[in-house]
Design goal:
This protein has 630 residues and is of the alpha+beta class. The protein has three domains: 15-251 and 421-427, no CATH class; 287-396, Glutaredoxin, CATH 3.40.30; 501-629, no CATH class. Helix content is 54%, strand content 9%. It contains 28 helices and eleven strands. The strands form three sheets. Strands 8-7-9-10-11 form a five-stranded antiparallel sheet, covered by helices on one side. The chain has a four-stranded mixed sheet with strand order 4-3-5-6. A two-stranded antiparallel ribbon has the order 1-2. Helix 2 runs antiparallel to helix 14, helix 4 (61-77) packs antiparallel against helix 5 (81-98) and helix 19 runs antiparallel to helix 20 (373-379). The radius of gyration is 30 Å and the shape is globular.
Length: 630
């Protein structure tokens, strides 16, 4: 196996592919991280305060979240990529392990994002759609943008993250699924989609009531997950796995309220898109002919940098930048403009031979770039146009021109300090055999770590053969703790029989106001659905920890306290003047197909089983000692 992996690494490393897919993966990863930071800021007091708004234990959390938001923005923009990814990786680990995020508010994808972030540390995420790529070009401003080849990367940068982050995850998940009766019955997607706590606002009943469709989906997912790691690299099967995977995770995103997990998985499929598709997409979206030709002063450093910046953001190649000294004479429309005047401004010529100069040129450039046309329109607005013209003239008339001669300093090219360049390019180019051997050992180590999790918790634990006192079991747990913390390797036993068995009741909270009217807290509605924005990790807190088949009153009291304090403050309630009613609804989670099960659970009646009342900063409960027996 070692020799096979080593030879495969050399084979994949020798093949080059467009960097577009990895650039988009970086952008999607950064955007998903950014939305989760915004979510954490909104639910800051619910997640991090021992008693929301009353006992604030971490007052600096919003500051660090905003700092993390800046880092995530850097990732999206591709600015100082290696630094940003390193900081992001460390921050994910810190927040997950040193705050209540994982213990009480596990979003279901924190460890996945840590694993993806780890691989992004070693991926060339700055090669496409990045500010770093622009910074590299700006370090040699007198080099025309056409001299830079389209960035390519090793196909290893695509294959390894997919194999480990998706392939290992799917196979581990499939092992767990085989122990779940509803998955063996072909109802793996159906059962969680009939539970009010888990569904989104989209009613999927028409699909859920088609038993044949549900069986096809359930068994297709099992086959897909078991075989993905073995066949996704096969050229003829790659598109099938791409389409099935996209459909699977798009369905999760739309139908369940764990959308961050669905989006995180979807982002990986940019790495599975066939390389030929990226080239075809590039040809389809780029202009066949430039719609605007811009002439600039070739001897002006500012003009050269401006051209590099504008060209960098000209994603559809709509603008052609030419040296005024070399090319202007070939355009009869510019014959009326003498050379000195031509070099004082940025001139442009469209397809109708209409001439633009100065601010008008910039406005036309933005309009022709398509996606930046609002900026061009704004630049032409009265008042803004005059202000921009004044600023433009103050800069254009004071710029320095440097004649190109032997006295010109040699530009210092910005060095590539990324881990990908240092290991996958520099070391691999010098010692390819040593590179493949070293990487093979690393991959085998990762495989052992994954097998430790899959065999221990996917087989031994589920066969009831696990002995916690066994030294081997203790060592396995210790290894898993390390691999889980730093690599995101964890058992993927999501929504299985041990989760839904006995899940026959759900809880909601209403309150009685001063007028005696009963109102629903904006948390769980009359159907039993968790309302937006209480999705993701807040859903996990209530549906997976507070309310379970065997409810623990201590935990339930804790989360009722947190929810009532948080939402009471959010909607402006005086906590001392309202009584919170705890309501229970009977539902069903069968492992066999039942027609219209979702609506049956929706319409099941509620009964009030107790109350909660705030007095000062304390909450008291009047609840049954054993809710499970109700």
């Amino acid at each position: 196996m070692y020799k096979l992996i080593s030879s495969k690494i050399l084979e994949l490393h020798s093949k080059q592919a467009p960097a577009s897919g990895i650039g988009l993966f970086r952008i999607f990863y950064g955007l998903i991280t950014l939305q989760e930071i915004i979510f954490l800021l909104y639910f800051n007091h619910l997640i991090f305060d021992p008693i929301p708004y009353i006992d604030v234990e971490f007052p600096m959390i919003p500051f660090f979240l905003c700092l993390w938001g800046v880092i995530a923005t850097f990732i999206v923009a591709g600015y100082r990529y290696q630094f940003a990814m390193t900081c992001n990786y460390i921050i994910w680990i810190i927040f997950v392990n040193f705050t209540p995020m994982q213990r009480d508010f596990d979003g279901g994808f924190d460890l996945f994002m840590i694993g993806a972030g780890f691989f992004l540390l070693f991926m060339p995420g700055d090669r496409a759609f990045s500010i770093d790529n622009l910074r590299y070009k700006l370090s040699t401003p007198f080099t025309h943008y056409s001299a830079y080849p389209k960035p390519t990367v090793s196909t290893l940068a695509y294959t390894l993250p997919v194999a480990i982050c998706l392939g290992f995850l799917y196979f581990d998940s499939a092992i767990h699924k085989m122990f779940a009766e509803h998955w063996r019955n072909g109802l793996g997607t159906w059962l969680p989609a009939t539970q009010p706590y888990y569904v989104s606002a989209i009613d999927m009943s028409s699909l859920l009531n088609n038993t044949l469709l549900q069986n096809i989906l359930g068994y297709t997912i099992l086959i897909f997950q078991f075989t993905f790691i073995f066949f996704f690299t096969q050229r003829r099967l790659r598109i099938i796995y791409l389409l099935v995977g996209l459909g699977l995770h798009l369905g999760i995103t739309l139908s369940f309220n764990i959308y961050p997990f669905g989006l995180g998985m979807l982002s990986f499929y940019t790495l599975l898109v066939p390389f030929k598709w990226w080239r075809c997409i590039g040809r389809l979206v780029t202009a066949k002919q430039p719609s605007l030709t811009v002439f600039y002063d070739q001897l002006c450093p500012l003009c050269n940098r401006t051209v590099l910046i504008l060209n960098h953001f000209d994603l559809f190649s709509c603008i052609d930048f030419k040296s005024a000294q070399e090319h202007a004479a070939h355009y009869p429309a510019l014959a009326s403009i003498n050379n000195e005047t031509l070099l004082t401004d940025l001139y442009a010529l469209d397809r109708t031979n209409r001439i633009y100069s100065g601010v008008d040129t910039y406005a036309r450039i933005f309009i022709k770039m398509r996606y930046l046309f609002p900026i061009g329109i704004i630049l032409n607005l009265p008042g803004i146009h005059q202000f921009a013209l004044k600023k433009y003239r103050s800069i254009a008339d004071t710029r320095n021109r440097i004649p190109c001669s032997s006295a010109c300093p040699i530009p210092q090219v910005l060095p590539d300090t990324t881990l990908y360049h240092q290991f996958f390019e520099s070391v691999a180019a010098q010692k390819p055999q040593a590179f493949s051997r070293k990487l093979s050992k690393i991959l085998l180590a990762l495989l052992v770590l994954q097998l430790n999790s899959s065999i221990h918790y996917g087989l031994i634990y589920r066969l009831n053969a696990d002995n916690p006192q066994n030294p081997i079991s203790q060592a396995s747990n210790a290894v898993l703790m390390i691999s889980q913390t730093f690599l995101g390797i964890t058992p993927h036993a999501l929504y299985l029989h041990d989760h839904f068995a006995g899940y026959d009741h759900i809880l909601a909270i209403t309150y009685t106001d001063q007028d005696g009217a009963e109102r629903w807290l904006p948390f769980v509605n009359e159907q039993g659905r968790l309302l937006a924005p209480n999705w993701g990790r807040v859903h996990s807190m209530w549906a997976n920890i507070a309310v379970t088949p065997n409810i623990d009153n201590k935990r339930l009291h804790k989360f009722i306290m947190k929810v009532t304090a948080f939402w009471g403050q959010k909607i402006g309630l005086n906590l001392d003047n309202v009584v919170f009613n705890i309501k229970l609804k009977k539902i069903s989670a069968p492992s066999y197909w039942v027609k219209d099960q979702l609506h049956k659970n929706f319409t099941s009646p509620w009964t009030t089983i107790g109350t909660a009342k705030w007095t000062g900063n304390r909450i008291s409960f009047d609840l049954p000692d054993n809710i499970n027996e109700l």
